[in-house]
Amino acid sequence: MTDYFAFYGLPLSFNPDMAVVKQQFYALSKKYHPDFYINESQEKQAEVLELSTVNNNAYQVLSDPQKRLHYILEFKGILKEGENYALPQSFLMEMMEVNEALMDLQFEPDAARLAALKAEVATIEQAISAEILKQTVLFDNLNAAAQDDSLLVIKELYYRNKYLIRIRESIDKLS
């Protein structure tokens, strides 16, 4: 896995300086633009194309908070492909109630109940987003030894948020 932070000369951070990310993206876009290497060897052109692709991917990931969160957790080995992560029972019970309300609304549409459910989910999302921000800022200020425990907390929040995104998408389909 390519270290996008190292590629941009930045320390690993959940909250990097976005002005620097953008500045690095533009500088490397110029440096690795394939048109500047048209007269080079096939190997050099392939290398530059690869670096250009890495630059584009790095910018897409580092400039999007959700993608950046996923990337760092994966980069640190905290997220595993196809992992079956178990969320806390209390959260699942709360989400079960939301899902039941969603099913009811599919069979018996009710604009007022839908609006109330949207508001409830938005409140839960805002609380999780605030906690993610709090934990990621904390992570960025911890020493390497303490960061591992912090990553486990962030991982759980990531999965809660991911679950809520799916619920919000279901709500949006009913709107």
From TrEMBL:
Q: Where is the signal peptide?
A: none
Gene3D superfamilies from the UniProt entry: DnaJ domain, HscB, C-terminal domain
Origin superkingdom: Bacteria
Entry-linked InterPro entries:
DnaJ_domain (IPR001623), HscB (IPR004640), HscB_C_sf (IPR036386), HscB_oligo_C (IPR009073), J_dom_sf (IPR036869)
The record ties this protein, via PROSITE patterns, to: DNAJ_2 (PS50076)
User: What are the GO MF terms of this UniProt record?
Assistant: ATPase activator activity; protein-folding chaperone binding
The processes (GO biological process) annotated in the record are:
[2Fe-2S] cluster assembly; protein complex oligomerization
Q: What residue stretches are annotated with the J domain?
A: 3-75
Q: For this UniProt record, give its keywords in alphabetical order, as a comma-separated list.
A: Chaperone
Q: Which family does it belong to?
A: Belongs to the HscB family.
Functionally, this protein is described as follows:
Co-chaperone involved in the maturation of iron-sulfur cluster-containing proteins. Seems to help targeting proteins to be folded toward HscA.
Official protein name in the record: Molecular chaperone HscB
